[in-house]
Amino acid sequence: MPIWVGATLLAGLFQCWRTALQQKLRGQLSVNAAAVVRYLYGVPFGVAFVLLYLGIFGGSLSSPSWLYLFYCVLGGFGQIIGTNLLIMSFGHRGFAVGTAYSKTEAVQAAFIALIFLGESFAPLAWLGIAVSVGGTLYLSLAGRVTSLREILAATMQPSAIYGLGAGLAFALCALAIRAATMTLDGPDATLRALETLVVINTLQTLMQGGWLVATEPSSIPALFRTWRSSVQVGALSASGSACWFTGFAYAPVALVRAVGQVEILFTLLFSRFFLKERMKRTDIIGALTVVAGVVLVLLGR
Question: What is the mean pLDDT of the chain?
């Protein structure tokens, strides 16, 4: 199995797990404070990953350039903006719609990479990207829209527009992260990805932490009162990001994000086996569609 595939599958698992744990913080922290937790408590784990990797495999850290730092700022800021847009989509009573349209990130990344970076894929990989995203859309919207007219109407909702904006921001974020890892001069792509994780998480802590200090200073003490839950969220967030960044270092963003749609499968499995919820026929159809899309991506790759 290529390293980027294994890393992407683990990234989907960690992200699903982190999202489940972060729900515990919803009643204790504001939206901005909960976001800061991911970065603030993730930095020490990122540093630990770098030191552990150096201890096991050896190597040396790369010297960052101004261009590298620019890409890191762009990637970190893009993730913050994407997350805020996604939250804004929820505010319009469109949780499912907003989430579904944010998952078009893989398709948006593919077109951006094609136009601006000249990255081209085999027809089978393009088909796989479309199928995997289509399966995710189906899982999110099944039972909510029943006709083409309703789909078009849903697309014009504020929640869908914010969701598409979130998908664009996440796509640009992922492309910036890939560009950053490619800018470093070290020979080890995995080590470059881990270095970039630490730099971006640090920048995000400063950016969103600074905003929190300026706008919600009363939320600062809560960041440390909830440290037991926050440490777990930070660990899973850092682990998931380390896997995403590793995937981006080895393969085009669109392919990584298309395979990453398996996150929704982990969500379904979690609900079925841990929450004992029954899976509907639409869940099974959507899940199989996502898997089929991922298989096509890998065959096309």
Answer: 82
- Whole-number Å distance between alpha carbons of 31 and 25: 9
- This model's pTM is above 0.90: no
Domain ranges of the chain: 3-300
210: left (phi > 0), else alpha (psi -120 to 50), else beta?
alpha
Tokens of 81: 């903006």
pLDDT in tens, 133-157: 777 777 666 655 555 565 555 556 6
For the chain, counts of helices (H) and of strands (E): 15, 0
How far, in whole angstroms, is CA 92 from its chain's centroid?
A: 22
The tokens describing 277, both together, are 């919820």
Strand (E) positions, the chain? none
| CA nearest neighbour of 261 among 16, 17, 3 | 16
Residue 91 phi, psi dihedral angles, 5° rounding: -65, -15
Per-residue pLDDT tens digits for 162-206: 878 888 898 999 999 999 999 998 889 999 999 999 999 999 999
**End-to-end CA, the chain:** 12
The encoded tokens of residue 158 equal 């504020």
Angle at CA 241, nearest 5°, toward 93 and 136? 40
